[in-house]
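User: Hi! Is it possible to get a structure for several chains at once, not just one? Here's what I have:
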Amino acid sequence: MYTLFGTKRSGSAAIEIALKRCGIEYHLTSASSWLEGNGSEQLKRLNPLMQVPTLQLPDGSVMSESAAILTYLGLEFPGAALLAQAPAERAQQLRALVYIAANCYAAIGVTDYPERWLPNAEEDTLKQLADGAEARLHEYWDTFSDVFAKTAAWHPEQPGAPEILACVVTQWSGTREHLKTSRPAFYQALLHIDRHPVVEPVLQSHWPVA
Ligand SMILES: N[C@@H](CCC(=O)N[C@@H](CS)C(=O)NCC(=O)O)C(=O)O
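Assistant: Yes, the chains can be modeled jointly so their relative placement is included. Here is the combined structure:
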């Protein structure tokens, strides 16, 4: 059995979507660095950073890092089409996944926890850092739209690994609001991904629309 560690409104939503796309049965354990309880203690033993998503595989081994988990699932379950079969298209998908993880997700770590980078700073300095990271995050998404969303590897109508990760990682830090005006076509493509029959119920369980 696969065990996914995660919580509402977190990046574990992307892996839930991917697991469902692969038709994999999994157990969901509520855990995160900001929640107390058995699940979070277990998570700490498996992943010392206590980040979600963390996925424990049936053989007991541990996968963390969204881009790596999505790539693993894409390779292990080719029928789910999380990754393309064509090498050139798959290369761009891998590039997009690492782009999101290395640039966008990392910037969110700064907006959420600026004190980890400046442990002795005053409140207003921390705010400056968080605001700067958020502005940079929005620029990263503008560039993502310009570079990736115009390639043959971008399929909002049939979401694979990059579309799933983009759909979830744009939920935070004012990214959707920013993209709505800065890159309206890309914003519409994200809404299209949101409405995919496998994606929509997972998003609804994480970010219920009243
Ligand atoms: N590099 C990781 C980042 C994961 C991450 O930062 N997850 C957030 C939740 S969306 C988290 O668990 N943060 C808690 C913390 O850093 O203490 C990935 O790409 O999956």
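The first strand starts at residue 2 and ends at 6. The pocket of glutathione is lined by residues 10-11, 32-33, 50-53, 65-66, 101, 105, 109 (CB under 6 Å).

User: Great, thank you!
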